Amino acid sequence: MPADPPQTATVVTSRAIRAGHEQEFEAWVETLQRLARTAPGYRAAIRLGQTAGFQHLLFRFDDQARADAWHDSPAVRAHVAIADGWSTARRQIQSGDRIAFDLPSDASASKWKRFITTWLAVFPVLLVFSAATRTLLHQAPLPLQLLPSSLLLTATLQWIILPRLQRYTRFWLLQDRSGRLQT
Asked: What whole-number distance in Å separates Cα of residue 21 and Cα of residue 9?
């Protein structure tokens, strides 16, 4: 396969999709890819999916001018505005055959936002488990009271609460002050 010319442009759009809008995203991507295929200078599209509503869309064009013309067209702008209602995005563009992009990930989340959401999940569960074990094991030493509550808390957080919490808060956790995804 021949190498792309040095002026070839790659557009990468990363999106964190709000929980419950996954089907809308699927239909939205189909339309976006159709809009790209009909644009002058279009070369290829690649979709990279991550867990729980995190997607990266890559589009290749002959050059940056054609990539910009496609993205700035009224049809694409209107289509992007639809997804902005139920997802948050970060768009990057680079030209050349040796390019690198910084992709947003769950590790990009603001520490203060992660702290707040985790604490809001931990506190009520800890309260319930601690009260239950203190009631049932009120005669036992404190370490023996904490053992079952810490095991139950950890298991509940790991397999039940945190996966759901991540799904429902990713949209907010990964936004920067301007509303775009942060890396």
From this structure: 30
Contact yes or no for 9/61 (Cβ under 8 A): yes
Confidence bin at 1 (pLDDT 50/70/90): very low
Q: How far apart are the first and last CA of the chain?
A: 32
Task: Report yes or no: 101 and 149 within 8 Å, Cβ to Cβ.
Answer: no
Q: Taking the model in full, what pTM does it have?
A: 0.73
Angle between helices 111-136 and 162-173 (to 10 degrees): 160
Low-confidence winner among 33-42, 104-113, 126-135 (lowest mean pLDDT): 104-113
Tokens read off for 78: 């209107």
Cβ–Cβ < 8 Å for 58, 14:
no
| Dist. CA 28–CA 1, nearest whole Å | 31
| Cα 55 from chain centroid (whole Å) | 7
Q: What is the DSSP letter of 89?
A: E
Name the DSSP letter for residue 102. -
183, pLDDT greater than 80: no
Please give the Cα distance from 174 to 77 (Å, whole number).
Answer: 22
